[in-house]
């Protein structure tokens, strides 16, 4: 525990106050004892360390980036999603913090036990629905009057969004997210006991001109089997294991046996349909390739080398002159 270090002037002032009677030494001792005691709420038990919370934050920052790309492509609209906070609270407190009517998706994450809650604010959910149906992304709130079609569209959209979560969690554990329930009333959710500690990841979400929150509620029991993988030591070990020389050697060895398609193009030209239909015996088609210019050798349809044609052991062959380098090669 860190302690405050007093300067010489502060020490002199303190001794002067005690000697003059302005401060009682016994009271000072009592204050010091009282400072060592602090309240602890057993209903709000902190079951995750700060290091583990940082690990969850790092994973879901990646998830937010993947989710932004997914919804941008699906909705063809301006979308930004970012992590606002990561907290651990009792499940009952989380339920009280969300609207009385909202979009709730409950997923199982096989092979992990337990379920994950994906809560989407109605403003965000209806902006997504409006864009999906060809609208401008207007936001409304009629959660109590959802039609079967609207429910189906929303549930499918969020089910596909979980592919991004599977990818983000892939560095920690391979999971298969399956939508089990779609609900609008938080009071009907019976995931865990009210006092169970859950991690709540809140995502700031903007779609067009509509904005709101997406909350991911993860019970402790779901993360318990993989909780050791959330620490920074696990990530550092993983990073160091990636740079093994034998892995590089094996990868290079395997790549040497990969087959690729290669072809040397003698030249190209274009003719009209009429000219093509009127082609006859002994007609000559002029190519755009000069006889003195080198040919291009294509590997998997990408130009890789300049070559010149010839023969080797009475077979047609090409000789490589130089490499064609592009911007990526630079």
From TrEMBL:
Gene3D superfamilies: CheC-like (3.40.1550.10), SpoA-like (2.30.330.10). InterPro entries: CheC-like_sf, Flag_FliM, FliN-like_C, SpoA-like_sf. It is a peripheral membrane protein. One of its GO terms (molecular function) is cytoskeletal motor activity. Keywords: Bacterial flagellum, Cell membrane, Cell projection, Chemotaxis, Cilium, Flagellar rotation, Flagellum, Membrane. Residues 254-324 form the Flagellar motor switch protein FliN-like C-terminal domain. Coiled coil: none annotated. GO terms for biological process: bacterial-type flagellum-dependent swarming motility; positive chemotaxis. The keyword Coiled coil does not apply. CDD domains: FliM. It holds the Pfam family FliMN_C. GO terms for cellular component: bacterial-type flagellum basal body; plasma membrane. It is found in: Bacterial flagellum basal body; Cell membrane. SUPFAM superfamilies: CheC-like, Surface presentation of antigens (SPOA). Belongs to the FliM family. This is Flagellar motor switch protein FliM.
């Amino acid at each position: 525990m860190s302690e405050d270090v007093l300067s010489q002037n502060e020490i002199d002032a303190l001794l002067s106050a005690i000697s003059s009677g302005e401060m009682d030494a016994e009271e000072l001792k009592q204050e010091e004892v009282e400072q060592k005691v602090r309240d602890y709420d057993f209903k709000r038990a902190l079951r995750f360390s700060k290091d583990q919370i940082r690990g969850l934050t790092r994973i879901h920052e990646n998830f937010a980036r993947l989710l932004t790309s997914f919804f941008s492509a699906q909705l063809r609209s301006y979308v930004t999603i970012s992590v606002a906070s990561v907290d651990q609270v009792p499940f009952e407190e989380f339920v009280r913090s969300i609207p009385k009517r909202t979009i709730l998706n409950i997923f199982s994450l096989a092979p992990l036990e337990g379920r994950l809650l994906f809560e989407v604010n109605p403003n965000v959910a209806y902006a997504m629905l409006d864009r999906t149906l060809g609208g401008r992304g207007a936001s409304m709130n009629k959660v109590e009057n959802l039609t079967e079609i609207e429910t189906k569209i929303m549930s499918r959209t969020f089910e596909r969004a979980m592919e991004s979560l599977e990818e983000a969690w892939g560095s920690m554990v391979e999971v298969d997210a399956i939508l089990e329930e779609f609900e609008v009333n938080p009071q009907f959710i019976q995931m865990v006991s009210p006092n169970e500690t859950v991690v709540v990841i809140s995502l700031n979400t903007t779609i067009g001109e509509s904005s709101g929150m997406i909350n991911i509620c993860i019970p402790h029991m779901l993360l318990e089997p993989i909780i050791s993988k959330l620490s920074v030591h696990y990530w550092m070990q993983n990073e160091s294991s990636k740079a093994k020389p034998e892995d590089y050697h094996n990868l290079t060895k395997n790549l040497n046996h990969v087959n690729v398609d290669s072809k040397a193009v003698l030249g190209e030209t274009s003719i009209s349909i009429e000219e093509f239909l009127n082609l006859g015996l002994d007609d000559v088609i002029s190519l755009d390739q000069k006889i003195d210019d080198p040919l291009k050798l294509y590997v998997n349809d990408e130009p890789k080398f300049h070559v010149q044609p010839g023969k080797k052991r009475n077979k047609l062959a090409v000789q490589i002159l130089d490499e064609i380098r592009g911007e990526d090669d630079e």
